[in-house]
Write a sequence for this structure.
């Protein structure tokens, strides 16, 4: 067994590998860029080596610098995690040249299966059905259009290398195909150093189901069942689960056998994932093979009880798999929710900044949190915005879902805008609860974006009652600290009106013991909690049922969040409500003459100049943020009056780029 390994990655996956290595009594080496000098993975490692400036091309993708760190520290092996160099055969070959073990597949397997085109050809030779499309690299935008026309729209343009949703675009027309080729090529080159793109048919109402495989150097290959990864946004997985609500035992066995056969044909070693696209008739097509550990691997670990990182390390050290296919058992159900620094209220734009407060849910037998940050960490513009993965396990799917709902209610982040409210809303959506999933779920159910005040919630009594109790406790605190003469203090009122938007809810709040009794529409609700002003989480019971809500003061009201719904609750006296009705409304400033940067990022390209006439929908600029390219388009017809930013300048959120006449 190895004495010391280097983790050629950052963030939560680096921390995840270190936890297993520590349990195996293996020393760890972290590598880090200048942007990550205070990162959690640097703090957790036994040793850490600076490998370059923030851009990944000069640090985490710099093969010579990582090998230099191995030589400097005496690391015997390298675990690549996922992303960056995890599927790069040149990296594995360079390590071998220096006598360093790559904890992953062979160079041959990386080359064959890590390339989507090569793996597609091998699958066809092995008799595995594939998605219709090209098996050759696309030369330019016009070539892409010709192939798309031959296949028939819609089509998917995909990077031949890498994964994680980078370098992928759906096209429904010739124009979208040309533009999609440019974006996919640019993203692929930036993310993987390989700009090759191919085209395949886009399947309607697809489900994304993948099979986890493990293989050793002695020829042993097994599968660990499937993962349902259909809940995606912009080709990025959002919530994954194991097993799939669609798959029965016969289908699991058939798909598993196909995956194992493909792994054998490729001479595969280590952990890998064979991905399938499943249509509405339950026909499944080979999509690609990820020659690395997947982001969603924890759901398989919780259901099988296996540590995939440990198995990868042992296989790399020459040990055989410690079990056979018949020994694999699946118990219960597991879900994973990816918590990203992205604002669901602004079309999920990346949100960079410092984690001023970071309170993850408590871990237990049913809740696991994989993270690479801590309070005070910086969410950088240079890397993927993943903050943490919340993973839950239950005896049934319903139980795992309920554990996840509670865990997300308890997850509090301040300083960046996380997607927690959106994740919570998905978990209470009737279609998700029923298991009626597809990769188009989010686009279909949220065609006009996500609005947390509209999330499925039902009776607003909980939000109203907690807001009233919170306000009462604030009022009591203010009364105690206002300098009033002891014994002559002004009492705190019992009668209030809670405003949720335009809706008014008269309430009566009566204090007693450790809780309060809230009367709403003639019905009494008991709210018990030891909450005190200043705490972001309101924990307690509501009519005897445990609850956890996030509560933040906001002007004269409170932002209250629970199960995906987030509302501004104003608690006023009846007299104040009358004045509130008379208050004038101040319209927001007119920013329509400006194109504003929706996020911090890098201005890659301006597509217009002063004097240009533009039409609604026309491309104006391209911004790169957190490894993704974002196209900004004109919202209306107009003429460019002034250019206020130039490529390749860094942009702040809401910074003006163009002004229109």
């Amino acid at each position: 067994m190895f004495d010391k390994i280097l983790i050629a990655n950052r963030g939560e996956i680096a921390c995840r590998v270190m936890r297993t290595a520590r349990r195996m009594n293996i020393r760890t080496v972290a590598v880090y860029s200048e942007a990550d000098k205070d990162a959690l993975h640097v703090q957790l490692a036994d040793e850490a080596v600076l490998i370059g400036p923030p851009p990944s091309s000069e640090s985490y993708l710099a093969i010579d610098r990582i090998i230099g760190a191995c030589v400097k520290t005496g690391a015997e092996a390298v675990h690549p995690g996922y992303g960056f160099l995890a599927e790069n055969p040149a990296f594995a070959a360079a390590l071998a040249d220096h006598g360093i073990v790559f904890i992953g597949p062979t160079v041959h397997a990386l080359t064959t299966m890590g390339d989507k085109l090569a793996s597609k050809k091998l699958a066809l030779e092995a008799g595995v059905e594939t998605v219709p499309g090209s098996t050759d690299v696309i030369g330019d935008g016009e070539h892409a259009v010709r192939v798309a026309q031959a296949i028939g729209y819609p089509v998917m343009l995909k990077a031949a290398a890498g994964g994680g949703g980078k370098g992928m675009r759906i096209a429904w027309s010739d124009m979208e195909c040309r533009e999609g080729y440019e974006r996919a090529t640019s993203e692929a080159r930036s993310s993987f150093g390989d700009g090759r793109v191919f085209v395949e048919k886009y399947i309607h109402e697809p489900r994304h189901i993948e099979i986890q495989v493990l293989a050793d150097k002695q020829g042993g290959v097994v599968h660990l069942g499937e993962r349902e990864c259909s809940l995606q946004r912009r080709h990025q997985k959002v919530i994954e689960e194991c097993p799939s609500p669609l798959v029965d035992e016969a289908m699991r066995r058939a798909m598993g056998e196909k995956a194992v056969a493909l792994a054998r044909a490729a001479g595969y070693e280590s952990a890998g994932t064979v991905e399938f696209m499943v249509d509405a008739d339950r026909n499944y097509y080979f999509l690609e093979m990820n020659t690395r550990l997947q982001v969603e691997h924890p759901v398989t670990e919780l259901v099988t009880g296996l540590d995939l990182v440990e198995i990868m390390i042992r296989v790399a050290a020459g040990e055989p798999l410690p079990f056979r296919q018949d020994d694999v058992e699946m118990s219960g159900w597991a879900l994973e929710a990816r918590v990203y620094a992205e604002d669901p209220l602004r079309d999920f734009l990346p949100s960079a900044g410092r984690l001023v407060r970071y309170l993850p849910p408590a871990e237990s037998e049913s809740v696991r949190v994989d993270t690479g940050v801590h309070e005070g960490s910086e969410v950088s513009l240079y890397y993927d915005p993943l903050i943490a993965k919340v993973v839950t396990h239950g005896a049934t799917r319903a139980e795992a879902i309920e554990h996840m709902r509670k865990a997300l209610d308890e997850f509090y982040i301040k300083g960046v805008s996380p997607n927690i409210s959106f994740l919570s809303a998905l978990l209470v959506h009737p279609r998700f609860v029923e298991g009626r999933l597809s990769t188009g779920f989010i686009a279909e159910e949220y065609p006009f974006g996500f609005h947390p005040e509209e999330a499925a919630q039902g009776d607003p009594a909980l939000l109203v009652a907690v807001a009233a109790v919170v306000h009462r406790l604030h009022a009591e605190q203010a009364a105690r600290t206002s300098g009033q003469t002891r014994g002559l203090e002004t009492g705190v009122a019992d009668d209030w009106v809670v405003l949720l938007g335009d809706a008014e809810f008269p309430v009566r709040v009566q204090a007693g013991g450790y809780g309060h009794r809230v009367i709403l529409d003639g019905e009494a609700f008991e709210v018990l909690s030891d909450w005190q002003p200043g705490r972001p989480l309101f924990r307690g019971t509501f009519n005897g049922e445990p609850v956890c809500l996030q509560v933040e003061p906001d002007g004269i009201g409170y932002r209250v969040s629970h199960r995906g719904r987030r509302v501004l609750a104003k608690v006023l006296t009846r007299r104040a409500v009358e004045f509130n009705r008379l208050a004038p409304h101040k319209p927001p400033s007119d920013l329509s003459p400006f194109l504003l940067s929706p996020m911090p990022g890098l201005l890659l390209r301006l597509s217009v100049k002063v004097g240009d006439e533009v039409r609604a929908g026309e491309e104006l600029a391209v911004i790169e943020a957190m490894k993704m390219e974002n196209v900004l388009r004109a919202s209306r017809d107009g003429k460019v009056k002034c250019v206020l930013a130039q490529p390749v300048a860094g942009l702040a959120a809401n910074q003006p780029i163009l002004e229109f006449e």
Observations:
- The longest helix spans residues 461-480.
- The mean pLDDT is 92.
